[in-house]
Write a structure and sequence with these properties.
- The protein is an alpha/beta fold.
- The chain folds into two domains: 163 residues, Alpha/beta knot; 50 residues, no CATH class.
- It is built from nine helices and eleven strands.
- The strands form four sheets. Strands 2-1-6-5-7 form a five-stranded parallel sheet, with helices on both faces. Strands 3-4 form a two-stranded antiparallel ribbon. Strands 8-9 form a two-stranded antiparallel ribbon.
- Strand 5, helix 4 and strand 6 form a beta-alpha-beta unit.
- Helix 1 runs parallel beside helix 6, helix 3 runs parallel beside helix 5 and helix 4 packs across helix 6.
- The structure holds adenine.
- The site of adenine (ADE) has 11 residues, from strand 5.
Length: 260
């Protein structure tokens, strides 16, 4: 059972997204849980405020330390221990990728802290001893969408979350290459045809074609991944030795063509 805990000012956003589709099905079948905690519920401010002006001046408001820390303490008390990973969604963090999704899929409980406004009082991040995680080099208005993206990609790696038809065995990145193009019926749509080889029934040839397509796509669309793949698969790209052909020169002698 995988448990996600999300500290946020917008718990409905988290609940409304995760209750749908594949994550919704996984929650219903008991494979995972997503619990959103509203940081505002923990404020001691008479007006329910959770933000204030930064010391030293400057633009924007900061989330205050008290409601964040009290919300975190409540979660730790409720589950009886500190979650295996405490992640703060921040453009300053380590960039989330498929490898990290695989790593996080092994953990039983993950806590996501979602910031808003201009940031969070640094003391809250120190007290929670967070790992900063970014989903890319761009700035969003809050950590909810990053947390949801991560929950989605981690969950699909959890055993049982995807069914056979949704299996993640063959997919972009699983072997360091992008996925090959795919087609379904009809064979001919307004003179746009399915590649003939896919209709041939020759599985070996289909596999070879798909691998070739993955290579071409990766080289064109993600040269960075392509270079990495080539470096990690030297045998596949080594120049092929010509086949040894033995040629008769006279009645008894033979000569190899290897050096030609
Ligand atoms: N919060 C704002 N921008 C973000 C990003 N790129 N990744 C993670 N959290 C964020």
């Amino acid at each position: 059972m995988k448990n996600y805990y999300v500290m946020t000012l917008f718990p409905e956003l988290i609940e409304n997204v995760t209750k749908e589709s594949i994550s919704g099905r996984a929650i219903k079948s008991g494979l995972m849980s997503v619990t959103a905690f509203n940081i505002r519920d923990y404020t001691k401010d008479a007006h329910n405020h959770v933000d204030d002006y930064p010391y030293g001046g400057g633009a924007g408001m900061l989330m205050q330390v008290q409601p964040v820390v009290d919300c975190y303490k409540h979660i730790v008390n409720k589950i009886g221990h500190r979650p295996a990973r405490v992640l703060f969604m921040s453009p300053q963090g380590r960039t989330f990728d498929q490898k990290m999704a695989e790593e996080l899929a092994q953990e039983e409980d993950i806590l996501f802290l979602c910031g808003h406004y201009e940031g969070i009082d640094e003391r809250a991040l120190e007290i929670l001893d967070v790992e900063n995680v970014s989903i890319g080099d761009y700035v969003l208005t809050g950590g909810e969408l990053p947390a949801l993206s991560m929950i989605d990609s981690i969950s699909r790696l959890v055993h049982g979350v995807l069914n056979k038809d949704e299996s993640h065995e063959i997919e972009s990145f699983s072997d360091g290459l992008l996925e090959y193009p795919q087609y379904t019926r009809p064979e001919n749509f307004e003179e746009h045809y399915v590649p003939k080889i896919l209709l041939s029934g020759d599985h070996k040839k289909v596999d070879e074609w798909r691998h070739q397509m993955s290579l071409e796509r990766t080289r064109e669309r993600r040269p960075d991944l392509y270079e990495k793949y080539v470096a990690e698969h030297p045998d596949e790209f080594a120049p092929k030795k010509p086949k040894r052909r033995r040629r008769k020169t006279n009645g008894t002698e033979t000569q190899s063509t290897d050096s030609i």
